[in-house]
User: Fold these one by one.
Assistant:
Number 1:
Amino acid sequence: MSLALDLKTQTLASARRLAGDSADLGALEAISFPERKTERWKYTSLQALADGHLNAVASGELSQPLPALSEFVVTITNGILSSSTLPDGVSLKQESPTVNGLETPFAVYNSAVAQPVVLEVAANTRIEQPIHVQIQSASDVPAHCNPRVVVQLNNGAEATVIEHIHAEGQSLTNAVTALITADNATLTHYRLQGEHASTLYIGTLVIDQQGVSTVNSYQLMTGNRLRRNDVHALVSKSGAELNMKGIFVVRDKSHVDNQICVEHSVPNCESDQNFKGLAGESGKAVFNGRIHIHPGASGTNAELSNKNLLLNAGAEINTKPELEIYNDDVKCAHGTTVGQLDPIQQFYLQSRGIPAAEAKRMLSLGFVNELLMSLPHEKVAEWAQPWLEAELTHASPAGDAA
Amino acid sequence: MLEIRDLHASVADKPILKGLNLTVNPGEVHAIMGPNGSGKSTLANVLSGRDNYEITGGEALFEGKSLADLEPEERAQAGLFLAFQYPVEIPGVSNMEFLKAALESVRGAQGKEEWDSVTLLRKAREACKQVSLDASFLKRGVNEGFSGGEKKRNEIMQMMLMEPKLALLDETDSGLDIDALQVVAKGVNSLRSPERGIVLVTHYQRLLDYIVPDFVHVLYNGQIIKSGGKELALELEQKGYGWLTGEEESA
Ligand SMILES: Nc1ncnc2c1ncn2[C@@H]1O[C@H](COP(=O)(O)OP(=O)(O)O)[C@@H](O)[C@H]1O
Ligand SMILES: [Mg+2]
């Protein structure tokens, strides 16, 4: 039997166990899991899942708790809400509204079994402090969990959500996150992902701008055994604005596959994607940035930039802008590059006495620094700076050639 | 302190230096002049260990140690400093962060006391002032968006902080107006000391009005073809290089 069929059988069996025999699993029954040749999955092998992650639900504990980056923290452990402290104006429900834009079979499986955590910000309410949503999981044996977080901003609401995903051991986090904004809402979203390298992550982030709203999303991630990150943005009311910035770092044998799709379906919206990638050792990263401008979405201004740095010859980054534009009256700027450390810059630093490895670290950090400096929340910046520094210093074998 | 004997060097496999001899003792200021393309920058790059600049024969000793055996950072730690003809822009790495890393490494290697960040900032501000560079340049990316003159002054500022034993200045005067030239010359002169060697690579005699050298050498086609005192520079100014090289002067 092929792995794709296996995965389907496993998820159906798991869904019956978790959701009960009476559950409607029609959507899951109808969908196929990716084959090796499936275009959208060609850079991500699911072979690791042959270990059987989908047969069991993770039940372990983190070796140490995550630091709280705010007074207000919601913790989801192995897919289940375990604690929450929320400010006035934010309510927590466990019934999910329909989430648009979920397409992968893993997201469909999540829809069938997840116990959603829905954070709703009341209309015309400004939440000063960020809400730190900790999504954590651990397992000594191959196992998975299905966290599902929906953040809903009503008319005129303003909030910051730090989505912080952490996993240890052999856990597969199969996540769905949805950000839904109504008119005049402003959402700042962070996604921090520095799970242990042995873990796996497959997730879809939906940004559903149902209203004239502004969403700023900052996504910082390292690679792990398998990381598949689908982002599906629906910019669907005229005047809406979406800014996404991100940094991904893959070292050693780690992997990241970013599949980002921004859909403009109405006139006069703006979207900007600015991602930077770094790959070292045998790390592999993929960035597929799709901009889909539907007929009628005139006056769209969509930008996409993905610059990447290869730290050595064994690393690999595949980046591709994918434009589907069915409209003449739009602005769409895009650029993707893959480069290496500049030997002249490196020589300049070394000629001032800075050792080669340190020079490389400084140049790599310099490459993403602008983005790092632009993080608006100090607590997040304080987390991100040492995290990134550690990523850039770690595991670099002595004397590895540029 | 610097002893170059019959040095042959290639850039990307092309022979450029073809038997160069030069001795610099502590306290001396040497000027190396010569037409464009004669190998002046190649010499500076070979001495500081740039990739693809390969010594193919002879030797270059710094305080008795063969430079060929040292990584570029080890040469800097040993007390060698090159002011680049074309200083390099490094966006995302601040000038201050750069100075901190450089000074930590070099002072540490030389057994000098470590400067804490307050001291470092004070020293850096003083050095900026001496080369008429606003202290705000310390926060900017290394040479990022600096004008030509600002880049050169930034080189001198770094040199003053690093206190090298031997300073090589590659065309530090080029592209400077007369005021900036005087600022740079003042910076270099302030570093003149009995323990320190200075090698000025220059195309024009102009700089030597302000930094008076002890020796002047003419580099041509990878060799030093004439050496003399400071009056040689004046002679070159009047006659050009043609009388030495046998070629029509193009510069
Ligand atoms: N990176 C390089 N690759 C190939 N040739 C070079 C390189 N750098 C310098 N050269 C050549 O070496 C010769 C000497 O150049 P250079 O040392 O820069 O001269 P100068 O500084 O005296 O003007 C020139 O012919 C130049 O074209
Ligand atoms: Mg030159």
Number 2:
Amino acid sequence: MIIPLMKGLALTFKRFINPFTCVTESYPDIRPRLAKRFRGLPELQVEDDGREKCVACGLCAKVCPSQCISIEGAEDEHFRRYPKMYELDSFRCIFCGFCEEACPERAILLGDSFELATDKNSGILDKEKLLESARRKKS
Amino acid sequence: MKMIHLTIDDKSIIAPEGTNIFQAALDNNIYIPGLCYHPKLSQFGGCRLCYVEVTERKHTRHRFACAHPVSEGMVVKVNTTEVNRHRKTVMEYLLAHHELACPTCNKSGECGLQNIAHELNMSPGRFKTVRMSAPVIRDNPVLELNRNRCILCGRCVSACKEIEGVGAIDFQNRGFKTVIGTAFDRPLDCSFCGGCLAVCPTGAWQDRTLGFSGRPWEFESIPTICPYCSVGCTIVLNTKEGSVRRVVSNDKLGINEGNLCVKGRFGHEFIHSPERIKTPLIKKDGEFQPARWEDAIEMVSDKLKQIMEKHGGNVIGGIGSEKCTNEENYLFQKFCRTVLGTNCIDNISNMKAPFLNGLLYKSVERGFFTDSLKGIENANTLFFFGVDITEAIPVVGCMARKAIQLNSANVVIANPRNIIFKNTAKNDVRLTYSLGSQHILLNAIIKVIIEDKLVDLKKIESSTSNFSSLCSSVQNVSLSNAEQLSGVSLEMIRSAAKLLTKPGNCCIVYGKDVIEDPLGEDTIKTLLDLCALIDVSNHSDIHPGRASIFCSRYHNNSQGVNDMGVVPEFLPGYVDINDAANKEKIEKLWGIKFSGNIVSKNSFNLIDLAKNGNVKSLYVMGADPLTEYPNGNEIRECIKNIEFIVVQDSFMTETAKLADVVFPSSTFAEKEGTYTNTGFTTQRLNRAISPVGNAKTDWEIICDIAKKMGQSFSYREIKEITEEIKKAAPVYSGFSYDRLRRKEFHWPSLLLDKIGSNKYTFFAIRDKSLKVKGEKEFPLVLITGASMNHQGAYSAKSKALVSVAPECFVEINDKDAKDMQIKNGDMVMVESRQGKLKMRSKVTRKSPSGIVFVPDAYVNIPINMLIYQEYTPVKIYTVLDN
Ligand code: SF4
Ligand code: SF4
Ligand code: SF4
Ligand code: SF4
Ligand code: SF4
Ligand code: FES
């Protein structure tokens, strides 16, 4: 019984001497460094010309286990398929990443935002909102 | 038929001789991959996917399942290593230049190619991929052809040729360059039935009314009945988020085998049209104001009560609907007869031809109308008399073509116009008779039949009661006179008579051109005589052939509205209203006493009464008499005399515009109930979406008003009404709403055992003919008829149909047009003594010289404004376009 106790104390002592190996995050003062494969809020991606990449194929909506995606496809002036409406209920999303995996166009990727608490009583994000971060990155 | 025993994948099955392995497997729920074989179409054998291992007569070989007939003791293996290797290779070839645009392809999820690729677990192939990049063809408003997705299975080509009879598309070029296309790459100009779309296993054909507004797996599929013509095709509504996105067909449901026409398949946009009436409207100072339901109902009930107190109930007229369900029409006549206490009710089809109900009932009683429309598929001879099959009842045309293909049926078409009915019949006799000569033509046919002994005269004499009077009535028919009057050569009459009396089943279909002729009643009676003649002689132990007769009605429920007794002379189910016993039975059922004046010896004609100012109020449910009643001026005059008009409709029709109160009613997609088609088959509607806006179903509106007026119309669901119909209408006694889910109901079949015992009595009407001629000032004769692309307000509010056929037109014979210096597509004025209308000209050979034809199906051109008699003389002249 005494041996594990000693082991623990040894670790404490080691960190005490060299605090740079410490894992404590001082969030929210400092934004944590996220892992590369962190799964935050899904984001829609944009083409080079600024249009959404999404073609409203509906696979993400189909695969989503919490059924938080709804899409209305439509035809644009060049007869291309695009999502007239794309809504994602951020309250329901469980960040499983299935949509990202299902998407044949790599049009939806799970991003790095995780601060989703809000005082509103609906977490439904529309297409523009979901495209915002990708557009910001582009410009 | 000889049955063959064979084994497929260790399952023993039995199949009729001559079936191919593919079909036998399909019938027994054994899956063989294959993309070009389709049970409805002739075998093609182009996709090479249905490769199977076949062991017969001790030899094991590989065969294509769709091209190899079953044989006794055959053993078939669908999944061997060898077979799968072959299949995978074929798929590799197919996918090597396939577009593979599944994410954006509307077919994804229901695509044959995708499914097989998935099943076989295909990975990138060994062959160099050359994706095709042919431009997508979007030259018409409803169909899009993306040839990069085509696998050249040939299904669309066969469907177009064999089912629709059009042949608009075919293979072009050879080898690698082969594509599907129209002749000379002209824009697709066909009947837009969408048959190609329905059979295509890939996403090459696309439904443009869908846009990209949904994916197959998101849709809920609700089978229901088409709201347009009287064939009663089953359509499947695909809905998403409470709105109808597209219509598809299902080969296994209904009477139409998945065949539809352009209206059924693409004419669904009216359901969500912004022009739908969404709230009750009350007219105040000539303007409609939206109102609450309670207020509108109260106002109507107060007003009706006032009128009833002042003048008695029988000054209120009711017009039932050829488009509403049987249940609604039943309630409507019950409402009028009990709550309002009036028998002044009618429907437009009965106003047009009051004799038809009686004659139809007679033909059922005689056993000539006991087959459902599907019976046409078993015909050996088809006789279309005065009906434009292609325009009026298009899917019956598909059934007829099936008969032609399977039984090599012969076709006889008699019509005043050269109607188009494309088919491959060996004998296709066209009798283009001049107007007014239909009766003498028919008598001439009968005379030839009797004189040339084309039927077994002895047998007829013994099994009918007055054959001699038929003989004497046709004796005086002079064939040369008939030839002269009808303009049909004697030779043609003879060959028609010969074809009609060929052994086998003979199906006679008559329609508008006969019914609405001044001699319509006599002609139909003589048709029955002809039918009897053929039936008696064809029906023997050797030839079990029968003759049957069908009447082509106009709207989806034109038959039902009459069955339900929305006519002055009959209670539901053709029960004579003047018969005390019947009356008592209904009184007991409804728990009321009819007011004394409800039963009258002479049947009322609502319009005549209204003309004399005897109708103070009019209640119209789902009808538009202003554009549908034959004489437009007359009905407009009548309506003027009426103080208070209530209309239930989904759209602001001409009649609704004159109403004092308009109730928004829901369309077929929003309600349950039943329709009875022109072949007496009753089929069930299923509700696909909730009512649009504040609309209510017609039966709910009637119940609400009845309740407000102090009667208990406490129906909660459709089934309660059907139960009551069952009790009230004897012909519907075998009716079960629940059973309709599985099988349609056909009331003449129930009468089968009651008929056939007594001998047929010929009407034996002496030949009559009319002189139909233009006048000096108005030299042309106007006739009207159905249009394949339009039918009333529904089609006019469906974008796709409007873009397929944007404008009403007048068909002018090319010679006449030349004389009048009118070119095809000119804007012309059609003027009769009563009015004039502007429309496009269409120079054709379809209408013979002296006759012009205008479809009566475009609501924006109310052709009845010109009409004051059956054949109205008109003149035509060019006017400026705009
Ligand atoms: S899977 Fe991708 S392309 Fe398809 S709808 Fe979702 S985001 Fe759009
Ligand atoms: S036709 Fe089928 S396989 Fe081809 S792109 Fe469309 S869904 Fe995919
Ligand atoms: S819509 Fe009908 S008529 Fe037109 S090409 Fe297709 S199958 Fe032929
Ligand atoms: S368009 Fe469709 S139905 Fe026609 S050949 Fe191509 S794949 Fe077959
Ligand atoms: S309009 Fe008539 S033929 Fe066309 S789909 Fe409807 S019921 Fe069938
Ligand atoms: S299904 Fe047999 S070859 Fe296509």
